[in-house]
Design brief:
Number of strands: 4
Oligomer: single chain
Strand content: 25-35%
Number of domains: 1
Largest sheet: 4 strands, antiparallel
Distance between the termini: 25 Å
Radius of gyration: 15 Å
Structural class: alpha+beta
Number of helices: 2
Helix content: 25-40%
CATH class: Alpha Beta
CATH superfamily: Dimeric alpha+beta barrel
CATH architecture: 2-Layer Sandwich
Length: 96
């Protein structure tokens, strides 16, 4: 994996909060579009997956540190419950 030396990997699980109004969904969509249009320097989205029912999604993100990820997720707090897990890549596992 080609990463900057000090970058960290994070898996984010975002679960949409229940009971959101149409206006709240629209605001969440506006925030998401703004984020994707201007991903900050030093942050890379390495993969994203969504549940079939659209109730939650998973993101593999590269960022300088946890504080950066928390800052990026803060605007979404009213609309989604987020779990952030620092991870490391694993290669070469065998059955033996």
């Amino acid at each position: 994996m080609d990463r900057e030396d000090d970058a960290m990997l994070f898996v984010l699980t975002n679960r949409t909060r229940s009971g959101l109004s149409a206006a709240q969904f629209a605001e969440m969509a506006t925030l998401a579009k703004a984020f994707y249009a201007a991903v900050p320097p030093g942050v890379k989205l390495l993969g994203e997956w969504a549940a079939i029912d659209q109730s939650h999604n998973y993101t593999l993100m590269e960022a300088p540190d946890l504080d950066t990820v928390l800052r990026l997720q803060a605007p979404f707090e009213p609309y989604a419950e987020t779990t952030i897990v620092p991870v490391v890549a694993r290669w070469g596992w065998t059955a033996s």
